[in-house]
Each structure stands twice: as structure tokens, then as C-alpha cells.
């Protein structure tokens, strides 16, 4: 119920102000300022409005374009591997966990979610050690299944490094889709399942025909979270492959490119304008993805009211 | 669904698959901790064996504690995380209360404005954040990190808490008003204690990305005195790549606090994610 309109309700302002100030000053204004900086560059020591020429340089200039397009392409591959491996795996694990009266379900759930809470630094280094040919853990296991000949220094080869890093990231993050879809599966009312069982729909076909359509909104949500997370990723690649995202830039994604560009690395000097330009491109990509989700997918997905 | 209709064969397969993946999830961490307690020869000769009396060694840990200021890093991480969560929760709860309790012009718009940060990562503004922190003289201070993480945590805190505050009974608040409580007293003494479970959920959620973040410590506070555990272990391990004892010990030291907290809070965390669906 509302307080009858008093002349000035200062307390509303007092309640809102701290959050609005911190949020605006540290998040929204810098974001806007970054977008604005992408339209400026230093000409003769002065910051000058240059229109879209920073973007022209990023997309077309030989010093930048190759790096940028490669990072963009790698980022899409990174995302594709998450969508193809992490999310189906998460759905499968959630489907198994949600079997009623499954013993040890809490234990499995807690254990499988555990990597998600570790920092990228820990995860990155652990996998670097495990995959290292020096330690020989991986070759040993591959020998057990007779595949030792297939082992290689995967993180060091341009052809396989990106896939390997993506799979490490999948290993770490699979807990999130698992949990969200698990929750959605548990929210399906028993009556719906019972009705399906009365109609003879059980097991496999019950999962495909009844449960999966009902958890589609959760899958949509997981996909957009994956998208935003992947196009903003940095830490794992920095830890495993360094700021140069080696070998030979094979694992360079937008996050690492942004870091090198605006902060500088080794011989490369930091370039604020180009950094802001890359951040703006990332912003537009994420905005496009989120808008597509909010206006295209989320509204079309049929929701069932129970 | 009360009938357990699953055949023993199928449930056997399910257990096999889940247990298999559990091993995949736990193995790397177990392997690291196990080997951190062995001497160098044993690490390479028998990496899969548990440490025995002959192979047990704490040499890695002594190296790490001698060389790196892990206790200092740990303190920094703790200060940054706790203070950021405190402010994100306090300011977030206040804003959530204003949005859910009062009808005023611009309410919906304000809600949308504060929700932008749920989807748009704060990292994208880093260029200007660094610029601002340099101008304010806050580079290499924990304050810079606290400000950033408070802002980062606010959107989700406001979103979740305002959902919860809508469920607090109006009668209770109106009774308070009739008794002459101010709006502030209603918030702090009536509403806040009632949404404590939701605050705990938000706290756990906010904590993990702050504790684990590498990006902002690397850019805003890379100095020795302000390094967080995440950045500290990153730098330390980078220097000691060939000393396997030290690397494994440093990794284990970074894992332990998180692991202990996870064991304590995993129910809370998982219940938060699954929002009441887990019984």
C-alpha cells in the first residue's frame, strides 16, 4: 500500500542515492565515456574527434585488421564450442540428476559444480600441468586406452590450442547450465509427468517430448549467459596462454586483444583510443546478442503456466 | 512423482555416467593437492600415488610461504571481497526497497536503468574506469577495487532483493507506520531482517566472481601491496614455472579457502541458483 502523497518524500531519494551514485559513477559513465572515446584519437598530441575512423582502422588497416578479425573468429569458435559441448553436457547431467529418488544426487551435484567456484587462475594452471608432456599425466591415461600415439602438446600447437582452451573452460563452467536446467526440470509439476506416463510416454521419449520443451526458456537463458560470458572472457586465456594468447595468436579472443591494446604489453604501447574502439565493438556484439534474446527469442519461446 | 519406475539397469547406467563425470570434475583438484604434499621425485615418478611416509614433503609450501607474501594477498582479497559485498548489499537493499515499496514517477525507468548492468559486463568500461581511477589517484589502492566490485554487484543485488521485498507483508509495514516508525526504521528494523535469507544468497553469488577476478586487480591494483590472492598466485606461479613443488603448493593454497567455503556454503549457493526448486 502506498503512503498518501506527501509533498516531498525525501526518503525515496535517500534510499536510491547511494546505489545510483556508485553504479552511475563506476559503471554507466565509464561505459558511456568508453563509447565516446572510440570516436576520438590523438592527433598532434591533442584529443580530436575523428568520427568512425578508429573503426575503419580496426576493420581495415593492415596493422589492426588481421588481429581483430582473427580474435573475432576465435571468439565465435570459443562460443560455438561452449554451445555444442558445455550446454548439451549440462542438459544431460541435469536430466540424470533430476531422476526422482536418485541416490547420491546431492553429492554428484556438489562435486560437479565445484570447478565453477575455482578461479580461472587455478583452473588454468592445473590444466596446464595436466596437459604438459613433461609431467606425463595425460599420455599415461591415453596409454591406458591405447591412444597414446594421439597425444600431443595440444596447448602449444596452433591447430589445437583454441579447442583445448575452450574445453578447459567447458570443464570449469558446465556446472552453471547444469544447475539452471536442473532447477527448471524440478519445477515441472508432477501432474504433467504423471499425465505423460498415463499416455505411455516414458523414459527417452518423455524427455524429448515433454521435459525438453518445458525447459526451453531455461535453455535460452543459459545460451545468453554463455554468449555474454564468452564475449567478455579473458582470464583463462591470459592464465593458460599469456597476454599474447599464443601460440602465434591462435587463442587470441576479443578480451585478450582488448587488454593488449589498451594496457600495452611488452613492446606494444597502450593505445587508449583503439582500446575503447575494441571495447565498443564488444559492447555492440553483446548488446546485439542480448537484444536478440530479449526481443527475438525470449518472447517467442512458449511459456507454460502451471 | 512418487513412483520410482527406473529399472536397475538404467539406474546403473545413470550412476556410471554421473560418477564418471564426478571423477572428471574432481580429479584435477585432487591430483594437485595430492602431489603438492610429495617430494619432487615422487611428483614425476608416481604422480597418481598418494603421498607416503617416504615421499611426503612440505618443501613446496615452505618455498611458497618464504617467497610470496600469500598472507598479505589473502588479507587484500578478504578486505576487498567483504567490504564490496557489504556495500553492494546495503546500497542494493536500500535501492531495492525504494523500488519495490514506493510508487513514484520514473520507478520503472529507474528499475530498468539499474538492471542494465546484469547483462552488460562492467569490464567493457575498463578504459574509462582506469582513466577515472588515475585522475582520482586511486590506482593501486584497494578502494579502487572495492568501488568497482560494489558497482558490479549492485544490479543483481537490486534485482533479486526487490523481488523478495515485494513479498514482505504490507500490513506489517503499515502497522509500523501507525506506531510512528519512520520510513528508515521500517526499512532497517522491519524489512531488512525479513530478507536476510535473500541477502545471504546474493552475498554468496557476488562473492565468487569478486574473489576470483583477475582482470581488475591486474589493471587497477597490480602493486605488490595491493595484490589479491588471484593475481598474487598468477604472478607467483608464472615466476616459478620450473619449481613444481612450489607451483603445486601455491595452487593448493589458493584452492583451500575456496574449497572450505564451498563445503560450508554449497547448500546455500545451490539453493540460491535453483531458487527454491531444490527441496
Largest sheet features of chain B: none
- Helix coverage percent of chain B: over 70%
CATH architecture of the largest domain in chain A: Orthogonal Bundle
Do you know the CATH topology of the largest domain in chain B? MetI-like fold
Calculate Rg of chain B over CA atoms: 24 Å
Q: Quickly name the level 1 CATH class of the largest domain in chain A.
A: Mainly Alpha
The CATH first-level class of the largest domain in chain B comes to Mainly Alpha
Give the uncertain stretches of chain A in residue-range form.
none
- CATH homology-level superfamily of the largest domain in chain A: MetI-like
Number of domains of chain A: 2
Number of helical segments with 4 or more residues of chain B: 13
Distance between the termini of chain B: 14 Å
Largest sheet of chain A: 2 strands, antiparallel
Walk me through what this model shows.
- The complex is a heterodimer of chains A (306) and B (279).
- Chain A is mainly alpha-helical.
- Chain A has two domains: 10-54, no CATH class; 57-300, MetI-like (MetI-like fold), CATH 1.10.3720.
- Chain A has 14 helices and two strands.
- Chain A has a two-stranded antiparallel sheet.
- In chain A, 40% of the residues are buried.
- The mean pLDDT of chain A is 88.
- With 279 residues, chain B is an all-alpha fold.
- Chain B has two domains: 8-57, no CATH class; 64-274, Orthogonal Bundle (MetI-like fold).
- Chain B is 75% helix and 0% strand.
- Chain B has 13 helices and no strands.
- In chain B, helix 3 packs across helix 13 (244-274), helix 4 runs antiparallel to helix 12 (229-239) and helix 12 (229-239) packs antiparallel against helix 13 (244-274).
- Chain B is globular, with a radius of gyration of 24 Å.
- The chains are: A mainly alpha (306), B mainly alpha (279).
- Chains A and B meet through helix 1, helix 3, helix 4, helix 5 and helix 8 of A and helix 1, helix 4, helix 5, helix 6 and helix 7 of B.
